[in-house]
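Structure tokens please, single chain.
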Amino acid sequence: MVNVSSTTCFLPVRPWINDVKSVLRSLRLSLAPLVLLAVLLAIWEIYSRSSTIGDNVLPAFSRVLTAGWADRQSLWENTVPTVREVIIGFAVSVAFAFVISVLLDLSPRANRAVMPLLIGSQTVPLVVLAPLFVIWFGFGFLPKILLVTLVTFFPVVVGLVDGYASSERDAVTLLRTMGAGKVSVFTLVRLPSALPGFFTGLRIGITYAVVAAIFAEYAGAVSGLGVYIRGASGSFRTDLVLAGVVVAALITLGLYGLTIVVQRLCMPWYAASRKVLQ
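Here you go.
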């Protein structure tokens, strides 16, 4: 005879155990890159201290941290404009990419005509675009936003368009036989199918956004990490240059992680399905 009271008392524990297992699994997956990063930083530190290269050429990582902390006020004042440019420019990029992707999905002719132009827009190097945008639009906020938008919208567009094309034909056919129009088919089938590709493009684009903003600032701006790095380079302060690079890398990692969090909130079933497959 089964003791009902003894079995039911363990039922509430199972979700808690699953949560603990999920946390442990996340820690285990993040441990490998953290260990690799620690090893690389240790090699950098040891090589810089033991080699004949001067500190002005390759400062130790500890010196970079010390110099960055000593100059933290200036670093912060230049980080805020860069983050603002990245967030606003990327938001404009995502909105623009979504509109373009919908138009390309609704019109195959437009897709064939516009897609080569979109590809061509990505062939011009940032080194060329950044000073041109500064010449055309000045040293203000606009050229940074435009450059971030231009550089980051393409992977989002491609992810969405490919996602629309991956929608199940049977589901589309079923909705059409039930009298659904293009808008209903798009919102109920094609758009949900495009979410994985959309977030993939989002993660790729957000890494380009920080680079584009810094390039635009480096070409000409009043403040920002690009201005900070350019000033430190002109003063031969390699430690401060690397401190600016470290801050830019941390911003990129933080925004990349934020896209993963948003994806898990919007698509909890997708993360669960990947765990099952693994």
